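Friendly challenge for the regulars: who can give me the structure tokens for this chain first? No prize, just bragging rights.
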Amino acid sequence: MAQDGHPAEDYLSPRLESLIADGVKAGFARDVVIAVLIDLLDDGPADDAEVR
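First reply, four minutes later:
Bragging rights claimed.
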């Protein structure tokens, strides 16, 4: 990921890369780990409100 000076990106990028690396070490393909993370982020508060 490109570091373009956003403090949140600077903070989160190394943690995200570490999380992805941990998923790969656990035996999951990198693209699968990324797809699951995107899916988790895509299920936002609007989707949670519908369930309640």
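The radius of gyration is 14 Å. The mean pLDDT is 85. Your move, everyone else.
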